[in-house]
Design brief:
Blueprint (H helix, E strand, L loop, with lengths): L3 E6 L6 E3 L4 E4 L5 E2 L11 E6 L2 E6 L6 E3 L2 E2 L4 E3 L4 E4 L2 E6 L7 E2 L4 H4 L25 H4 L1 H25 L3
Parallel strand pairs: 3-4
Antiparallel strand pairs: 1-2, 1-11, 3-5, 5-6, 6-9, 7-8, 7-10, 9-12, 10-11
């Protein structure tokens, strides 16, 4: 079972990772380091051998892991030829017989059959993605935003005191 992950898009295009054993994708201190990708977590995802192929699992990354354009929610089976997106980096699994990707635990939206009638949900089952509890960009910017507002309010108070003192003479 000799397979290779090839970086096809992103800052590390052309880089190759042999899949002899478990490979952890990330920015630093991992078996497959892609340091140039700022959207990649330190330990983003793991690709490991599984019966007859490989599986991938997101390791709680901030930006998620995608297989063939779909965000994965748990371990997902890979058979070959799949496109894996982590951060800005797109990798392709090569050297494994091509077969359909199957999730370890299928999502209800993927199992739903198309119908000719009106959707059962207000705007269809695929209108809004399921809530994923990850700290995104907005939560990472909350601290700096609060500090900036504290500085603005402090400046406003200082100016009010300054002008009230100088206008009293």
């Amino acid at each position: 079972m000799s397979a290779v992950l090839v970086v096809t898009e992103g800052p590390a295009a052309g880089q190759r990772f042999e899949l002899d054993s478990e490979v952890v994708l990330g920015r630093e201190g991992v078996s497959a380091t892609i340091a140039e990708d700022s959207e990649l977590s330190r330990r983003h995802a793991v690709v490991r051998p599984a019966a007859g192929g490989f599986e991938i699992e997101d390791l709680g990354s901030r930006n998620g892991t995608f297989v063939n354009g779909q965000q994965i929610e748990g371990p997902m089976r890979l058979s070959g030829g799949e496109s894996i997106k982590v951060g800005q980096t797109v990798l392709t699994l090569e050297g494994v017989a091509t077969a359909a990707v199957t999730a370890v635990s299928p999502t209800p939206a993927a199992a739903a059959a198309p119908s000719s009638g009106p959707p059962s949900e207000p705007f269809g089952a695929l209108a809004a993605p399921a809530a994923v509890h990850r700290r995104g960009i907005a939560s990472r910017q909350l601290g700096p935003m609060l500090i900036a507002w504290a500085i603005v309010i402090g400046d406003a108070i200082a100016l009010a005191i300054y002008f009230s003192y100088h206008n009293s003479f």
